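Can you give me the bound-state structure? Components:
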Amino acid sequence: MTTLTDRYIAATLRSVPEKSRGDLERELRASIGDDVDARVARGDGPDAAEIAALTELGDPARLAAAYAGPQRYLIGPRFFHAYIRTLGIVLVFSIPTVWAVLLAVWLAAGDSVGSALVISTAAALFVGMMAGFWTTVGYAVVEAAETAREVTGEPPEWTTELGMAVTWTPARLPKETSARTVRASDAVEALVGGSIGIAIVFIQRSMSPFTDASGAAIPVMNPALWSVWIPLAIALAVAWMVVELIKLVRGAWSVPIAAAITLLTVASSGVQVYLLGTGQLFNPIFLERLGATGWLAAGSPLVLLLIAFSVFDAAKRIFRAWYSTVGPAAC
Amino acid sequence: MGDNEFLATHTQELRRGTVVLACLLALRRPGYGYGLLDALAQAGVPVEANTLYPLLRRLEAQGLLVSEWDTTEARPRKFYRTSPAGVEMTRRLRTEWEELGAALRLLDSEGDPK
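Here's the bound-state model for the whole set.
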């Protein structure tokens, strides 16, 4: 059974370097135990004593930060969770909203489905990047302001407003106690994303806004890619799904899993960047009919944007894999 | 913000620097986290647990304290003791503290309108 103390210790150790966890855990457990015993000896009930002892120790994130000593952060532990949460909300809302609105506008303006799709997708990705950038800048400014207040001994101003309570109670402790947990959303993303991606690759051959003289659909992707590149991309997507499933079943990150994800991410991103960069990804006949040959030619701004997005996404995945595996100590 | 609140802030500032010295002095006899917390409070140097526990580990990392696990009791505890380097640091910090006290007394007598 996990006690409140177990959960408190787990929450504290989460952001402490792996190598000092064992010793720190024993020491913290003894200190909390001593405090609880002293309170019980003064007449408190065991449960009330535990809650009082943990409340006095305060927010585990702050305690962990104190153990780590003074550090410089772009966005430190105070705001990190609020930052990730905000970033998620901003991206989840901004990208689809911009995409849907622009798509509707361009279609209403009488554009072809193809060019409306290309323009709205590019614009939505751009808006997503801008939103992510400014969210990050905003939180970095708040972090710097709060650090400055801390140095001069002034009471915190933003900490209360941006998600991390100054008055902390043990009720805020997360339920689970394992230091690193696997998120089911990773596997869902891999399965849903991977299957949709593979489905699109097959569907685009027969469902296309354009047909040739004989009435056959003109594929969106370059048909020459079927000899090597498309089978390779499908194999990588399947491997990604398998690795994510293994990770989910195993319930923990490990160095081989992180290495496999790194390898797969580099390979998939490499394929994307290579095909985009050399202008081979799309069917030239399709682009001609779309009237977007220039838009997606090698070195065009849209292609560079897509490449930047691919590289950024790959870097994020690789960072997350190793961060989740070996923790902040090694990163 | 009343005078009392300013007093609390300034007192806290004044005490902050003395916690290290108090720990080094107290731990010339080995002690463990909660025991030291209690001892310091009894001696009139109250420290928050979430300040003291990380401080002990930091002083150990600086070589001013050494530690040893005592597993003879039902609850294993990490005992800290002031190292020779810590004793030397104690001496110098104490000199600093006394010089500060003397300087403040001097300022006090100079500023006192006779």
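A couple of observations. The beta strands of chain B are 31-32, 65-70, 77-82. DSSP finds five helices and three strands in chain B.
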